[in-house]
Amino acid sequence: MEFSVDTSLGYQINHVARLLARDLEARIKPEGIALGAFPALLHLWEKDGLTQKELVARLGIEQPTLAATLARMERDGLVTRRRDEGDGRVQRVRLTPKARALREVAYDAAMDVNAKALQGFDEAERELLMALLRRVILSVEGTENNG
């Protein structure tokens, strides 16, 4: 079997991800949210005050990448980083009022992008697609953890 972008799972998922990211960026950038900050914001909106280590684990990125992202987010007035009062070795990331105020507009933008991508799919197809993607993620994560 020869390689083809038309039948490559990785290529097709990457292509979809780039298209979704481009659409999302066009919607959130005018609000002052950089695309690279969006994943961290999602986790902080879920649970403010995470440590940098917790964010690294949740995002699945390297510490230097997160540090650079947080520096930009700090510059943009979205987060603050402070030493934990109980453990000075730990740095907690906290949302600013500006970032908290952007939550709904960002969620709305993400939901609009998702709805656009899934237009023409019925509910059963949407559920099946999400279930299959979760299986792919588990398979890849299992491969990464086992070898």
TrEMBL record:
GO terms for molecular function: DNA binding; DNA-binding transcription factor activity. PROSITE patterns: HTH_MARR_2. It comes from the Bacteria. It holds the Pfam family MarR_2. Residues 6-138 form the HTH marR-type domain. Keywords: DNA-binding, Transcription, Transcription regulation. CDD domains: HTH_ARSR (cd00090). The keyword Transcription applies. SMART domains: HTH_MARR. The keyword Lipoprotein does not apply. This is DNA-binding transcriptional regulator, MarR family. It comes from Shimia haliotis. The lineage of its organism: Bacteria, Pseudomonadati, Pseudomonadota, Alphaproteobacteria, Rhodobacterales.
